[in-house]
């Protein structure tokens, strides 16, 4: 396992934000951490990065307790936090080249570090802006630069905190490709937070839902939806009257409808529960317990 979290607790003052968080990640796995505002997603990531000291629990990233991580350990992590605000007068290529130099002593034959600047610019779609000053970039271009800064050291583990906020659909789709490529070709293990359920669905091998200080559900979208009963919605009309019903077995339900109504059955539609339906049910269920 590249990352293991067992019984993680984080207390601010007398409030437990995280009370008992446990999960693990395999090499090259992409995990999406979902949860309502204030659930503790950024806190979890900051603890894993070694930026924040936890109150209790066992945590290991690349075999090291983040609270005791040294520079060598840190060089194997990539971090994309909320936007990079300094260095407005630097040019894009210049900054990436400069930051990349920090990783050179940690280069190995399996992971040559840093990522060559021009290749990296190309990978994040910033080649046309390479000579531009950072303060002149658009919001989305700026975010691509944040991502480039996070991966310039060819990290073994990459943390992405809401990476695609402000991306246009094309940039988002290109970013998704980049993340999948990092995981598949470089075996980078990726933990990202997002409020975009579609993004979590597309990107993640596994989704972790954090609420009430715990991981309340984990799995693929399909696995999560099977946790929720009444997952499909069937709609139809008979003699011009519309009907709708939720069912766990839409195939059987539809067969019964045909049995009952035969050719009078019109406008039949089966709608699978979306990740959004499942997520909302999970989080609302947690709030009422
Ligand atoms: N340094 C701190 N001191 C006290 N409370 C804090 C501190 N940092 C965060 N918190 C609280 O911890 C909770 C979790 O915050 P965190 O930023 O981890 O949530 P999040 O899931 O990332 O939220 P969002 O989706 O809004 O980004 C919030 O209630 C926040 O107010």
Automatic annotation (TrEMBL):
Keywords: Antibiotic resistance, ATP-binding, Nucleotide-binding, Transport. One of its GO terms (biological process) is response to antibiotic. Pfam families: ABC_tran (PF00005). PROSITE patterns: ABC_TRANSPORTER_1, ABC_TRANSPORTER_2. GO terms for cellular component: plasma membrane. Residues 2-237 form the ABC transporter domain. It is found in: Cell membrane. One of its GO terms (molecular function) is ATP hydrolysis activity. It is a peripheral membrane protein. The keyword Magnesium does not apply. Signal peptide: none annotated. This is ABC-2 type transport system ATP-binding protein. The lineage of its organism: Bacteria, Bacillati, Actinomycetota, Actinomycetes, Propionibacteriales.
């Amino acid at each position: 396992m590249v990352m293991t979290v067992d019984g993680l607790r984080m207390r601010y003052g007398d409030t437990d934000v995280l009370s008992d968080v446990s999960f693990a990640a395999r090499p090259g796995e992409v995990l999406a951490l979902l949860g309502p505002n204030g659930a503790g997603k950024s806190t979890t990531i900051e603890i894993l990065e070694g930026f924040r000291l936890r109150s209790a629990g066992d945590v290991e990233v690349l075999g090291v307790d983040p609270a005791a991580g040294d520079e060598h350990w840190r060089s194997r992590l990539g971090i994309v936090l909320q936007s990079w605000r300094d260095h407005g007068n630097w040019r894009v290529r210049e900054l990436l080249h400069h930051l990349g130099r920090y990783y050179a002593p940690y280069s190995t034959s399996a992971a040559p570090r840093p990522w060559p600047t021009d290749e990296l610019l190309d990978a994040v779609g910033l080649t046309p802006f390479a000579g531009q000053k950072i303060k002149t970039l658009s919001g989305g271009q700026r975010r691509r630069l944040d991502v480039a800064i996070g991966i310039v050291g060819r990290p073994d583990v990459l943390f992405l905190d809401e990476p695609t906020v402000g991306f246009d659909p094309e940039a988002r789709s290109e970013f998704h490709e980049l993340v999948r490529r990092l995981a598949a070709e470089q075996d980078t293990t990726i933990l990202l937070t997002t409020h975009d359920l579609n993004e979590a669905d597309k990107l993640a091998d596994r989704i972790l839902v954090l609420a009430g200080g715990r991981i309340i559900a984990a799995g693929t979208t399909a696995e999560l939806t099977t946790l929720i009963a009444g997952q499909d919605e069937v709609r139809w009309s008979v003699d011009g009257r519309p009907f709708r019903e939720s069912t766990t077995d839409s195939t059987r339900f539809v067969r019964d409808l045909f049995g009952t109504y035969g050719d009078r059955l019109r406008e039949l539609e089966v709608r699978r529960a979306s990740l959004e339906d499942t997520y909302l049910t999970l989080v609302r269920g947690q709030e009422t317990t």
